[in-house]
Specification:
This protein is an all-alpha fold and 86 residues long. 74% of the residues lie in helices and 0% in strands. The protein is rod-shaped and about 110 Å long.
């Protein structure tokens, strides 16, 4: 994105109303530029957070799979006959 700086050139022949309009346009242009920069920053942050969420979802799936495997092994051992030897 191109950054433009606005300057108001004051001429003695310009009417005060025109100066107010030009000042308002310059102000609005700066606000628009700032809003666009903020939108870009927010979009980048949203993408960073979405990437983190996808990573956490993958981690969660791995943990759930390991927990299910451990539960299955535990249930197998609990159901297995228990023999005492002397």
């Amino acid at each position: 994105m191109e950054t433009r700086k606005s300057f108001i050139v004051v001429s003695l022949s310009q009417k005060p109303e025109l100066l107010a309009v030009e000042a308002s346009i310059a102000h609005s242009s700066r606000k628009l530029n700032n809003a666009q920069k903020l939108q870009e920053q927010v979009s980048k942050e949203v993408e960073r957070q979405a990437t983190k969420v996808r990573g956490y979802q993958g981690d969660l799936q791995s943990v759930q799979k390991a927990a299910n495997e451990a539960l299955g092994e535990w249930q197998t051992h609990v159901r297995a006959p228990f023999f005492l030897t002397q």
